[in-house]
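wait is this the right file?? whatever heres the structure
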């Protein structure tokens, strides 16, 4: 046990927060239909399910894009990024690097990976706070992203997917006053090396009452916070959140109720809960605690004080029901016949060239006629010019043409899939200003020439175990500023 609380006023605080949840939803009733004798997660009605081409990197990019847009933060001013996850696509490779490439972070930015623990999201927030307070970073990004599943046929099989991003800066609207931790018990949840599913033993009553509640109570005592106005606990199911909040005497908000519809979000869960606590915002001066727990292993908490309000962005595409068989397919558990090695379409996928070391959606703009080409070319197809400047391309556009492929699927997505051409917003030229891309997360019936789309970062294949990422097009179906979007 240790207390890192300082009597000095800490300058670092949360400047913005955004969450992203993929559209897929697996209902607990559907899951129980296949495992009728197994108890499900308490209070959880459904879990969020990532798409075939989504993982913690692509979902993290969605959340980062949203938080940067809501705060008007310049990407060049971000000099620290920490990514937390229990479900990295790699045993050894930096996913923080992949996120940094996609959003165009400066190459000099410090990158940190926190993997393998549900405490990682809060630990990432504490690390970013320390970086800003020490002067090592001006602005720090925290990303916690998960795409997990448990062992088949167990109460912890159906786990949620989603991502949260936070911007930490000096004089943030929600000050981070201190951190504390507590070790307790014997591990009751773990994932063996090389095993894709989470294992567990002991029932949740023992985990909550015998381990989680004492750990959280001790953390609150170390932080000298009694009966905080708002308390964000995670990853806990809906019933456990209520039990813990009642036990520690929380007198206000109890965290995000989304756990009932999204499920256990691992390291991202406490930060999701914090977003629920801070929207709508408590009155200025109120204090609270954001605590992560890992049953049987420990708890980690940060104390916060609200100064002024800051937008909390919730990116929520329209939910789509997912059956249990499709859930297993998306999770990679049910694969069927071994498919041929996918052909990664580098030449036709924007931003996916083998020598694309900068990342982002980069284009080459002709100095003679102004046409932009994505990916960059050496000769302008509109005027024949050979002098270009490299810049970030627009992330939105309209459909120029498309076709639906019913026979040849792009692994792992099942047929049918749509591919087409998108004209980027604000771009002109006969041949320039357009990109070829596959469409994702889109009802094929909603595709039409002239439809508004946005370019999103997704998986496009695997080469010798190395996941390849690139840009696809998605019909714009939700608005961050609409209902459930930005909360002032």
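ok assuming it is, sequence goes like this
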């Amino acid at each position: 046990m240790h207390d890192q609380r300082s009597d000095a006023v800490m300058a670092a605080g949360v400047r913005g927060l955004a969450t992203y949840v993929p559209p897929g939803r697996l209902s607990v009733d559907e899951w129980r239909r296949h495992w009728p004798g197994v108890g499900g997660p308490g209070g959880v009605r459904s879990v969020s399910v990532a798409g075939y081409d989504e993982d913690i990197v692509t979902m993290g990019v969605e959340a980062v894009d949203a938080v940067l847009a809501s705060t008007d933060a310049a990407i060049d001013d971000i000099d620290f990024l920490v990514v937390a996850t229990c479900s990295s696509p790699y045993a050894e490779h930096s996913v923080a690097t992949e996120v940094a490439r996609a959003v165009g972070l400066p190459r000099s930015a410090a990158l940190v990976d926190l993997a393998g623990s549900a405490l990682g999201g809060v630990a990432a927030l504490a690390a970013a706070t320390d970086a800003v307070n020490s002067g090592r970073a001006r602005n720090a990004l925290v990303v916690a992203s998960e795409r997990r599943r448990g062992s088949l046929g167990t109460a912890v099989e159906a786990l949620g997917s989603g991502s949260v991003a936070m911007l930490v800066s000096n004089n943030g609207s929600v000050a981070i006053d201190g951190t504390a931790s507590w070790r307790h018990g014997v591990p009751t949840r773990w994932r063996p090396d090389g095993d894709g599913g989470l294992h567990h033993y002991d029932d949740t009553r023992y985990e909550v009452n015998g381990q989680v509640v004492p750990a959280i109570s001790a953390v609150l005592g170390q932080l000298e916070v009694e009966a905080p106005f708002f308390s964000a606990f995670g990853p806990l199911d809906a019933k456990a959140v209520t039990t813990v909040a009642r036990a520690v005497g929380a007198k206000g908000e109890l965290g995000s109720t989304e756990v009932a519809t999204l499920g256990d979000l691992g390291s991202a869960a406490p930060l999701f809960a914090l977003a629920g606590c801070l929207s709508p915002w408590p009155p200025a001066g109120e204090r609270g605690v954001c605590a992560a727990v890992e049953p049987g292993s420990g708890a980690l908490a940060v104390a916060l004080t609200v100064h002024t309000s800051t937008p909390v962005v919730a990116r929520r595409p329209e939910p789509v029901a997912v059956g249990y068989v499709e859930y297993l397919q998306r999770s990679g558990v049910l694969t069927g016949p071994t498919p041929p090695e996918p052909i990664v379409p580098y030449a036709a996928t924007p931003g996916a060239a083998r020598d694309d070391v900068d990342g982002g959606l980069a284009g080459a703009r002709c100095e003679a006629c102004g046409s932009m080409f994505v990916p960059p070319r050496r000769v302008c197809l509109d005027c024949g010019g050979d002098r270009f400047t490299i810049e970030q391309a627009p992330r939105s556009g309209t459909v120029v043409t498309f076709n639906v492929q019913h026979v040849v699927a792009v692994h792992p997505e099942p047929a049918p899939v749509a591919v087409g051409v998108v004209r980027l917003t604000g771009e002109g030229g006969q041949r320039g200003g357009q990109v070829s891309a596959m469409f994702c997360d889109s009802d094929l019936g909603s595709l039409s020439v002239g439809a508004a789309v946005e370019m999103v970062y997704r998986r496009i294949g695997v080469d010798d175990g190395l996941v390849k990422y690139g840009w696809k097009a998605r019909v714009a179906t939700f608005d961050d500023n609409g209902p459930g979007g930005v909360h002032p």
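The chain has two domains: 2-331, 395-481. so i think its the right one actually
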